[in-house]
Records
---
Amino acid sequence: MAQFGFENDIHSILKLDMPISNAPMARWQRKASSSNTSALSGLSPGKSTNVSQSSSKTPSKTPGKNKKQTPSKMGGDRFIPTRNSNQMDVASFLLTKENDCLDTNNTAGNSDNQKAWSVSLNGYNIEDAKILHLGGKPLNAPEGYQNNLKVLYSQVATPASAKKTRYISLTPDRILDAPALRNDFYLNLLDWSSRNVLAVALHNTAYLWDASQGDIVQLMKLDREEDYICSLSWTKEGSYLAIGTSDCKVQLWDVENQKRLRSMPSHTARVGSLSWNDHILSSGSRSGHIHHHDVRVADHHIFTLSGHSQEVCGLTWSPDGRYLASGGNDNLVCIWPRVTGGSNGGSNESQSVRAWSEHQGAVKALAWCPWQPNILASGGGTSDRHIRIWNVNSGSCISSIDTQSQISSLCFAPNYKELVSAHGYAHNNVVIWNYPSLTRVAELNGHDDRVLSLTMSPDCSTVATVAGDETIRMWKSFELDPVKKKAKERLVKSTNSVIHHSIR
């Protein structure tokens, strides 16, 4: 019986069936009573309520509006979540007892018994009835949760101008042996065709390497051992290869049939540079003369250009075929107009459009900009070491930079609007420059001797370099992003369809 009496007492305490006589007033009751007292104290004797409200600092209504004002709720100083009446009663009781001394005899087992009694009597744990409850360890975030605002608290701010840059490998994608390569700065011994075939001259023999399949073919070999190949140049279609030799001749070869079509003598010294413009083949000689050959006719020599006093080691036609740029060992850069007609015996001579003498060393490195046909880049030798950008139309030097190294070859990389330079003494490396700012993008090191020539692959993703260490290295540094590559292919297909439609 005593046990049932004890349970009844506990039940009566938790249920709060009758008010607690000696309990202090709850805080929300104290707040409500103080608010009512302050409101009543503001009333002056003998004056109506309306007068006191009108004299208040804050008007009860917005001036100029007759809308009914929402009455303010008094007595609430914070938000209290919705609970049932039993929980509110228990919470009120716990608030009145928050300042009482804790029972030191309360053990962990006793607290467990109280929790069991509370659940059996009230249907919930009494601890859950607390309005504010602080304690315990914080809950872990659910798996996979990500805080989207965490960047706001980062100590290192991300610059607004930072852009995602491509990855450039500093090691070559492929290395080929080039034994018996002639280590001569003034020769042009490497060229890559539009059909993805790389031609290289090793002393007196010309070899072809198919980049698609990896096959190597010996195209030709000079009859005399003392003779050597000085220059190579593919036609635009990639079917024919022109070869300049040390015995003052220019040979034309059908690559598919591996047959020599003709041998064209006209120079008095070795032919160190070649460049095609449709059916016109231009050749530069050690004598300083440039000859134009029309390969369609028997009398091939149709024009002679005399502007250099020493060997012509750089020669290239502009993409639109309007101008021929030549560089020589006399430190000159000359711009020649397009050939308009033939002549008998090559007696006619043409005057250069531009002649620049700013370089202080031999100018072998020449490159036209593919997307700006009037822009020419030139590079000087050991005494100069400068890259200069020229505007052919105005004749002015747009910009220049000292590379601190001999420049042997230049080419533009259209995939990323960049300029690539090959260097000899003293760095023996390849440098990628941003155009037109001429800031360094990357340096490709690997050759043990000076880099003599470089050439770009037909898809403009890879550059091949040949050096005095008798190696050819492939640098796959300009490969397009797959998304950009697909967009470019779609553009090319649409352009071709328009061309075919206009032809029909």
Note: Residues 175-499 form a domain with the Methylamine Dehydrogenase; Chain H fold (CATH 2.130.10.10).
---
Amino acid sequence: MTLEPLIDAPIAIQIHVVAVVPAALLGAYLLVRPKGTPRHRLLGKIWLALMVIVALSSFFIHQINMFYGFSPIHLLSVYTLLSCWGAIVNALKHNIEAHKRIVRSLYFGGVVGAGAFALLPGRIMNEVAFDGDELAPLLVAAGIGVALLWLTSKEMWRRRRLTR
């Protein structure tokens, strides 16, 4: 692992990474911890602020220049901003089911999905995490996928027991 490619990267990428790393960790924590508590609400606000920073900073990243400096991944940034707004509105309206659905899709699509894309060979984060190795990101992605499936299935079983 080396931080050199990230240090040499444009400031927009540095801001993006500085926001997305804690968002990934905090989001995972929020998904598995009790909901509705004051701690959940505070950390959820911090997480949403981080996600907005992630999305906004991405508009200044143009590594994949397909259409005037933008690529399909920027559609995910628009989706992220709209989802953050939807998560807030639904939480304020006490529409908790919609809030949960939006936040989960935002985490798994915006953090996990885009994170997997960022670890592909040829990308800066692949250079940072794996020194450009082509097999390591696939193994890590498989491990993360298994861990996420385990965590979400554990949470689903816990919720089923509570509703019985």
Note: The mean pLDDT is 84.
---
Amino acid sequence: MDAPVPRPNYPQLADFMCFAVYSTNLAYGRAYKAILEELGVTYTQWIAIVALWEEDHQTVGGLGEKLFLESNTLTPILKKLETLGYLHRGRDPKDERQVIVSLTDAGRALRQKGAQKTLVKATGLEPDEFRALQKAIVKLRTNLIRHAAEPTD
């Protein structure tokens, strides 16, 4: 009888950090579903509005940088939010090449309606654990972006 051939010890799916981040993102999406449905927006629309609460009257390019979205991805999201009455897009009078995005009163009012509905408690993390994990994830993202921008030899 032949001896079993040893299998290489390859990492399992659960060992991949990228899968942990990806599947956590999906879980966040499911957890946010009821909140976002009540507000009538998608997650990506929601984060665009939140970014505009922080800094209204931004260029599409500046908003895209904050959200890590390309213009061709962001523009349809902004068009839909404009159709919903949450923002206005217009050319910058100082530079016609730039499109400025501004919240409407309805967009600002969403803050009162939904901003307090977060999932911090749903994470099961203590406040200090939550802040530490968020900081670690931001560091991870920054390092990966930096790595991707490095020239390859």
Note: The longest strand covers residues 95-103.
---
Amino acid sequence: MEKLNQNLEQFKKLIGQKLDTMPSKAGNWLEGTLLEIEKDFIKVSYIVTAEMCNPARTLHGGVASLMIDDVIGMGNFAAGSEFLMTSINLNVDFLSGAKIGEKLEVAAKLVRAGSNLNHWDAVITKSSGKLVAKASSNMIKTHVKLSELGF
């Protein structure tokens, strides 16, 4: 249990910092800023860039999904597990657009922690509070120990 608490403590040291040196190269590209993290909650902010947009110059659904999946993955790591957990599904409802330059927050909450499966809910909101997307995801325990990956 001590090592699991260390995972959360490592993340707490990153509050207010850019998340651009994490193990996820795709997540690094997003250049989010960690705002909050607890054992069952995480919030990261992002600024929409032109590279994140579709031809209509609004946030691409795939990039929004990447934001959500990456935030849930970090939150799940901080929630603690001896084993790597991976997404087995990600259900996203896109509810409104986001334009270049807008600041977004992705918040994810651990709804259920099980011995093999963790269920998360997440939302993307604009600074105005308007909902951009909502999602749910299940993470399943693999047979790969985090210590084997260097964590």
Note: Residues 2-149 form a domain with the Thiol Ester Dehydrase; Chain A fold (CATH 3.10.129.10).
